[in-house]
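Incident log, support desk, overnight shift.

02:14 A customer reports that sequence design results differ from what the structure should imply. Their input is reproduced verbatim below. On-call engineer (initials T.W.) acknowledged and began investigating.
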């Protein structure tokens, strides 16, 4: 039996008080980061391999179904505003298409041949990398996608929450986070989903730092798309260049980018 399908350690949930439910969920959640920590060597190997390809112009694809697919799309969509990269550097694809982001598409994840069709819309090539995301490690859409991508020469990895799965066996760089049974039996949007989100954060953040999209500990390439981010950019320029707020505002207004504002300020 898949560990993610094992019976919950809790029973009679409908008889619990709200406090008992919340405390039970929290006790289960506390085990997730420890499970992720055990897989850091696997994550390291995957990130290192991805960085090598992206430095040569490759892209990173996430594919998944249900919660896993949505988490991949979430992580991919946050890379452009956070790191100022083009929209096609990190791409999230899920079974059922964009409509499945908000509403479940029945049986979409069971089509093993559909993922490669979805990937080919992006003209995938041998410089690209793909990470299949599936808590069970058995999702046909994801397995078919990484298998086909591997045959096309892409680097393949996965994030799963079980050991020795068909998905793990289908990729070059498996990341296996054993989160165990869920608070509600089989509800992998919970602990497994949390683990996947943590690993995706680690992968995209580490990759972007290695690609030079962070300076010190600051998002110097972030898109200045609202007043909060503009204010953050101004504060970075003030501290980095040791200038007053008005000067920093002028540099940001002129350059529309924190990194360029810093470079401009140093040359002044």
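02:41 Re-run completed on a clean worker. Output:
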């Amino acid at each position: 039996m898949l560990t993610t399908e094992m019976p919950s350690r809790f029973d009679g949930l409908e008889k619990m008080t709200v406090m008992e439910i919340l405390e039970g969920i929290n006790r289960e959640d506390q085990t997730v980061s420890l499970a992720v920590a055990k897989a850091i060597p696997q994550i390291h190997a995957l990130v290192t391999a991805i960085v090598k390809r992206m430095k040569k112009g490759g892209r990173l694809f996430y594919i998944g179904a249900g919660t896993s697919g949505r988490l991949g799309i979430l992580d991919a969509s946050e890379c452009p505003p956070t790191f100022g990269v083009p929209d096609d550097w990190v791409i999230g694809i899920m079974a059922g298409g964009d409509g499945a982001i908000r509403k479940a598409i029945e049986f979409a994840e069971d089509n093993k041949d559909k993922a490669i069709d979805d990937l080919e819309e992006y003209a995938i090539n041998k410089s690209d990398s793909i990470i299949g995301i599936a808590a069970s490690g058995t999702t046909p859409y994801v397995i078919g996608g990484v298998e086909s991508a591997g045959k096309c020469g892409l680097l393949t990895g996965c994030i799963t929450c079980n050991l020795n799965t068909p998905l793990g066996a289908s990729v070059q760089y498996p990341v296996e986070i054993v989160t165990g049974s869920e608070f509600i039996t089989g509800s992998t949007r919970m602990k497994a989903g949390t683990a996947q989100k943590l690993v995706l954060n680690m992968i995209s953040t580490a990759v972007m730092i290695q690609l030079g999209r962070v300076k010190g500990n600051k998002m110097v390439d972030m898109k200045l798309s609202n007043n909060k981010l503009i204010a953050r950019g101004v504060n970075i320029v003030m501290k980095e260049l040791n200038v007053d707020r008005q000067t920093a505002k002028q540099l940001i207004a002129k350059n529309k980018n924190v990194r360029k504002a810093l470079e401009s300020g140093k040359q002044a």
